[in-house]
Amino acid sequence: MRDGIDSSGSTPGEGKMESNGDIKINPQPDHAVKYVAGLDGGGTKTNVVVADEQGKVLNAFTSGALNLNGEDHERVRQNLREILSSISKLCGGMDHCVHICIGAAGISHPEARARLTNAIRESGYHAGLTLVGDHEAALYGALENPHGMILIAGTGSICYGVNERGISHRTGGFGHLIDDEGSGYSIGREILSAVVKAHDRRIPPTLLEGMVTRQLRIPEDSDPLRGLVGFVYDKNRNKRDIAALAPLLNEACALGDEAAIGIAHSSAESLSDLVVPVAERLSLQEGRLAFAGSVLLHNTYVQSALRERLARRYPRLDMDLPRHDAAWGAAMMALSLK
Question: Which of 155, 156, 289, 303 could form a disulfide with 243 if both were Cys (CB 3.0 to 4.6 A apart)?
Answer without folding.
Answer: 155
